[in-house]
Specification:
The complex is a heterodimer of chains A (351) and B (363).
Chain A lengths: L1 H5 L16 H28 L6 H25 L8 H18 L5 H26 L3 H20 L11 H8 L1 E2 L2 E2 H19 L1 H11 L1 H6 L4 H27 L10 H11 L11 H21 L6 H35 L1
Antiparallel strand pairs in A: 1-2
Helix pairs in contact in A: 2-13, 2-14, 3-8, 3-11, 3-12, 3-13, 4-5, 4-6, 4-11, 5-6, 5-11, 7-11, 8-9, 9-11, 12-13, 13-14
Chain B lengths: L9 H34 L18 E5 L6 H16 L3 E4 L11 H9 L4 E4 L8 H9 L3 E5 L10 E4 L3 H15 L4 E7 L5 H14 L7 E8 L4 H14 L3 E6 L2 H12 L8 E4 L3 H9 L5 E4 L2 H16 L10 E3 L5 E3 L5 E3 L4 E4 L9
Parallel strand pairs in B: 1-2, 1-3, 3-4, 4-5, 5-13, 6-7, 6-8, 8-9
Antiparallel strand pairs in B: 10-14, 11-12
Helix pairs in contact in B: 1-6, 2-10, 3-4, 5-6, 7-8
Classes of the chains: A mainly alpha (351), B alpha/beta (363).
């Protein structure tokens, strides 16, 4: 956990955005994202060398579109993980919001797309409120609570759907087109994900509330003693994570056009993997939304390039796991290099 | 078994049933001589009855449909087909069933139906063995038992109405893709998981089919696996198109894979360029047939399945057939059917859906 220690932001609120991470710490943060970027570049280079069509416009569009949903989820998860919590219910929230949106659009086809997005956001936020309230009231680790709500939300989804499936023909054409539309060659869904990323990343990096999330994750007791409203901040993080999962649900419905009660099952582990690969420390207090988004992009690209490289399907999962470990390894190596000797000392200390 | 239940969509589970059936057929050759004895043991008073092909269908038969679970759209459609048939032969129709498709959930329903003196029980077994005792109890009490969609063990039912054979499923898909690519070119298969036995059986049979001289110009370049997940199926479809730029068509024998591939093609530059077919439900594919991404695809019609099962039950209860191989009966407007080995009746080749007929179906 050396990286977590070295990247811990100062506990007192920063006086300016730049001082948030301090000189050396800021460089380290940049290096981590650089590590993921390098891994991504290496993967793209290898795949493109074997099949140049991997770099075609359609192919790049496909990867960006595929990554959009995972990026939104990973960014939301980052908010929670930096506070030393975890939200395992995001897959179920996504499923619930996807089905709710599908139901809304099939019963009221005239619903404008922004309203559908808001509906998903709201439904997700509601789930986030449930998570946050339970965690605040029960004082039980978020892992346990969200593991419970993972099943509760999925159960609600199942009983709501009652075996029904919403198909592309049930949803308005405009909404489906929104799922594949591009603006200047870039998928709209990806632009939306980038907008979410920019807002969350800026909040985490430059706003008092965001910095306090890091402080809570670094040392909750100290954060509480220094007057940070820990309960309220954590609650807020869960609400936002839920809302973003809800938004991702709407995007899922638009992108795939087929929604039933099983949508998003198991995606929570991919989300956590994306955040961790992107340098968000699982024990809180460090990492950036940009890193998590890059992690999501890397995982998506791994999936796409394995399909292009025609890796033996029986081995694919093992290869994905191996590539994740390799990406993390590269990241750690670079982090230690950039941090130099003090970094290494901290590695020993941390271990 | 519903195609709508996505973790294990219909072709997957059906395939398991088809495969189990194939195994049963294989053993039937050895056990054929003892089968009559089994029937005498389990069938009670009907065991000694001779089949009378000319017997009229009895009126007022109490026919009960017991699906894997109620509120499942696939069975809602299948049972509605059964209701139509029961109305035609002037019986009494009812549908009962558990809300959850667990192994033992159907037992109490079978027992209740048996006590109520039901003449025909038509069921899709959640588990081949769990309902066995209860079904045999019902048969001793005089009920005729027909399984459809998913078979129970052969010794505890009179007939199994099978939706399609593995050969039929493989044949129709090869035929469809051949038509759509004009009989020549590269094709790929987008399957579910690499370990799905039913998918692998179909793929094997499709390869055999493609080896026939009339398909000599078609080359199967690879099999990709979308794991019945939307995202993975998308990525695999993309991978196929990148890896094989001359690809003329994709066959996806799984509902999730077919819908995902169609969704991808419809929003990409390949729409209309690359043919796509496979097994899917009309509701799922309606949009993609309308926008021209998919010309035609196949699946059995669950309403016909329920309809045939109801007539098979009525034929049993009226003494037209006893469930032995070679007997024939007429299933209303579907025409005449013959009982195959091991008490299996096959609905027939899968139904092909295209722009012309897709709007007649709602499942």
């Amino acid at each position: 956990m050396s990286a977590a220690d070295t990247a811990s932001p100062p506990r007192r609120r920063p006086t300016s955005p730049r001082s948030g991470r301090g000189g050396g710490l800021g460089r380290l943060g940049a290096a981590r994202e650089l590590g993921v970027l390098l891994a991504l570049a290496a993967l793209v280079a290898v795949t493109a060398a074997s099949n140049s069509r991997f770099l075609s416009a359609q192919s790049i569009q496909d990867v960006l579109l595929s990554a959009a949903i995972l990026v939104v989820l990973a960014v939301g998860q980052t908010l929670v993980i930096v506070t030393r919590n975890i939200d395992l219910s995001v897959g179920s929230v996504l499923g619930l919001a996807a089905f709710g949106t599908g139901e809304l659009l099939s019963s009221a086809p005239g619903t404008p797309i922004p309203l559908a997005l808001l509906f998903g956001l709201g439904l997700g936020a509601l789930c986030g409120v449930v998570n946050g309230a339970l965690i605040a009231a029960a004082r039980v680790p978020a892992l346990v609570i969200t593991l419970g709500t993972l099943y509760v939300f999925r159960g609600v989804d199942h009983s709501w759907a009652a075996g029904e499936q919403i198909n592309a023909a049930d949803m308005p054409r405009g909404f489906l087109d929104f799922g594949t539309a591009t603006l200047l060659g870039v998928p709209v869904l990806a632009l939306l994900a980038v907008a979410v990323l920019a807002v969350v990343a800026t909040y985490l990096r430059s706003y008092r509330g965001g910095r306090e999330l890091y402080a809570i994750g670094s040392e909750p007791t100290a954060a509480r003693l220094s007057g940070i409203p820990v309960g309220r901040r954590v609650f807020g993080a869960f609400v936002v994570s839920g809302a973003l999962a809800g938004l991702a649900g709407v995007l899922h419905a638009a992108r795939f056009g087929t929604v039933d009660a099983t949508v998003g099952t198991g995606i929570e582990l991919q989300v956590v993997a994306a955040a961790v690969v992107g340098g968000v420390a699982i024990f809180g207090g460090s990492g950036s939304a940009y890193g998590a988004a890059l992690g999501a992009l890397l995982l998506t690209t791994i999936g796409s390039s394995l399909a292009v490289l025609r890796v033996d399907p029986f081995w694919q999962q093992a290869v994905v796991g191996g590539l994740i470990l390799a990406a993390i390894g590269l990241d750690r190596l670079l982090a230690a290099r950039v941090a130099g000797r003090p970094g290494r000392r901290r590695v020993l200390h941390g271990a | 078994m519903s195609p709508q239940s996505r973790p294990t969509p219909v072709p997957f589970r059906t395939g398991a049933a088809v495969l189990a059936l194939a195994a049963l057929l294989a053993t039937a050759a050895c056990s054929g001589t003892t089968r009559g004895d089994d029937e005498e043991g389990g069938g009670g008073d009907r065991a000694t009855a001779e089949a009378d092909p000319d017997a009229p269908l009895a009126e007022g038969l109490a026919v009960a449909f017991l699906p894997k679970q109620v509120n499942n759209p696939y069975f809602t459609v299948a049972d509605a087909g059964g209701a139509t048939a029961v109305e035609e032969f002037a019986g009494e129709y009812k549908e009962v069933g558990p809300s959850e498709a667990s192994a033992s959930s159907q037992v109490s329903y079978v027992n209740t139906l048996s006590q109520q003196g039901t003449d025909v029980i038509v069921t899709a077994a959640n588990d081949p063995n769990a309902v066995c005792g209860a079904l045999n109890g019902a048969r001793s009490a005089g009920a005729s038992v027909v399984t459809f969609d998913s078979d129970a063990s052969p010794e505890c039912r009179d007939l199994f109405v099978n939706q399609a054979t593995a050969e039929g499923i493989a044949e129709i898909q090869v035929q469809l893709i051949a038509e759509q690519i004009g009989g020549a070119g590269q094709i790929a298969i987008l399957s579910a998981t690499p370990n799905a036995t039913n998918q692998n059986t179909w793929i094997g049979l499709m390869e055999e089919e493609l080896a026939k001289p009339e398909y000599a110009d078609i080359e199967l370049v690879t099999v990709a696996y979308g794991n019945d997940e939307d995202e993975k199926s998308f990525q695999e479809t993309q991978g196929l198109l990148r890896s094989y730029p001359d690809l003329a068509g994709i066959v996806s024998p799984t509902t999730v894979g077919l819908a995902a591939a169609a969704r991808y093609l419809s929003g990409s530059e390949y729409r209309g360029e690359v043919a796509l077919t496979g097994l899917g439900t009309p509701n799922q594919m309606r949009e993609f047939v309308a926008d021209g991404t998919v010309e035609s695809f196949a699946l059995w019609d669950p309403a016909d399945l329920g309809y045939l099962a109801a007539y098979a039950g009525a034929a049993l209860a009226s003494g037209q057939i006893t469930g032995s191989e070679g007997e024939t009966f007429t299933a209303g407007e579907l025409g005449e059917y013959e009982v195959g080995a091991d008490g299996v009746v096959v609905l027939g080749p899968p139904t092909v859906f295209d722009a012309g007929n897709i709007d007649e179906f709602d499942f």
